[in-house]
Amino acid sequence: MLTKITVVGAGNVGATAAQRLAEKELARTVVLVDVIEGVPQGKGLDQWESAPIEGFDTRVVGANDYKPAAGSELVVVTAGIARKPGMSRDDLVRTNADIVKQVSQQIKQHCPNAIVLVVSNPLDVMCWVTKQVTGFPRERVLGMAGVLDTARYRAFLAEALDVSVEDIQAMVLGGHGDTMVPLISYTTMSGIPVTQLLDKTTLDKIVERTRSGGAEIVNYLKTGSAYYAPSAAVVQMVDAIVHDKKRVLPCAAWVQGEYGVSGVYLGVPCKLGRNGLERILELKLSAEEQAALAKSAAAVKETMAVVQL
Ligand code: APR
């Protein structure tokens, strides 16, 4: 276990992530930081009080400043606001970029050696803001999107095939949102290509449902967005890093020529170990998948242009 992990943003995703980190004892202390007075303290204390029942020794503490976070080896960033009525997409990008900028300055000052995992949306752009402001190398700034998109895809496939989710292997690359790129040709059920098990119409429907997975939850919840699966996804990345597992997971990483793309955060297969990103794996893609990835990158660059750092 690590000595200290900090989760910035004690909202739905952040607080649930803190709980999962504590229950898995991934750090001795989990610090929850939020700007709302009392909320991180209250949620942190409530979680810590569940420790004797759940049987974990991780101490969860809440704060409105970064002093208790000092020296964290890993920081998860979930701070941000949801789009409000009348707010344009660009306004939301600028607002969340300002929040993530402020958070990144604090991380740089108080946790200079941390690995940072970004969850705040729009994900790929927020990763870039974090990398720019902290000045950390790409090995230490990664984004969570692909693990979540892949989990949704795997859940829908397991349901369609009526088999265990554990037996579905898949990878969703690209941007988080409309431009995600599910790799159907690499999707298997215990090594058997899924294209041999499901017809094209069913597969297309599953891919479409995966693409709008976030919206499906928002439509049910009306206010707020998904948080159980997003928090589980980022904690899987933390687990791979803390235990130096060398897992290959789809993460948003700063590409420098991989897949023919540079200067942008993009969902690509990443080997994660104790130092963060250890390697980006380059797979052979179909011309269609390669084009979809390039389109994803172009969409992220367009959104980056809206932000001034
Ligand atoms: N510093 C710390 N926390 C902040 C800051 C800041 N500068 N600004 C806002 N916050 C906090 C809010 O007070 C709130 O508690 O971030 C939290 C966000 O929580 P929610 O509104 O519940 O949002 P959540 O569902 O957790 O999503 C967080 O993750 O998946 C993404 O799209 C989602 O960008 C969103 C983020």
Largest sheet: 6 strands, parallel
User: Which regions contain 5 or more consecutive residues with pLDDT less than 50?
Assistant: none
The total tally of domains equals: 2
Total strands: 14
The helicity comes to 40-55%
Q: What structural class do you assign from the helix and strand content? A: alpha/beta
Radius of gyration of CA atoms, rounded to a whole number: 19 Å
Q: In what order do the strands lie side by side in the largest sheet? A: 3-2-1-4-5-6
N-to-C span: 35 Å
According to CATH, the fold-level topology of the largest domain is: L-2-Hydroxyisocaproate Dehydrogenase, Chain A, domain 2
Number of helices: 10
| CATH homology superfamily of the largest domain | Lactate dehydrogenase/glycoside hydrolase, family 4, C-terminal
Order of helices and strands: EHEHHEEHEHEHEEEEEHHHEEEH
CATH architecture of the largest domain: Alpha-Beta Complex
- Mean of pLDDT: 95
Bound molecules: adenosine-5-diphosphoribose
Overall form? globular
What's the CATH class of the largest domain, please?
A: Alpha Beta
Can you walk through the features of this model?
- The protein has 309 residues and is an alpha/beta fold.
- It has 2 domains: 2-143, 3-Layer(aba) Sandwich (Rossmann fold); 146-304, Alpha-Beta Complex (L-2-Hydroxyisocaproate Dehydrogenase, Chain A, domain 2), CATH 3.90.110.
- 42% of the residues lie in helices and 22% in strands.
- The protein has 10 helices and 14 strands.
- Strands 3-2-1-4-5-6 form a 6-stranded parallel sheet, with helices on both faces.
- Strand 12 and strand 13 form a beta hairpin.
- Helix 1 (12-23) packs parallel to helix 2, helix 1 packs across helix 9 and helix 4 packs parallel to helix 5 (123-134).
- It is globular and about 55 Å long.
- Adenosine-5-diphosphoribose binds at residues 8-14, 33-36, 78-82, 99, 102-103, 119-121, 224-225, 227, 230.
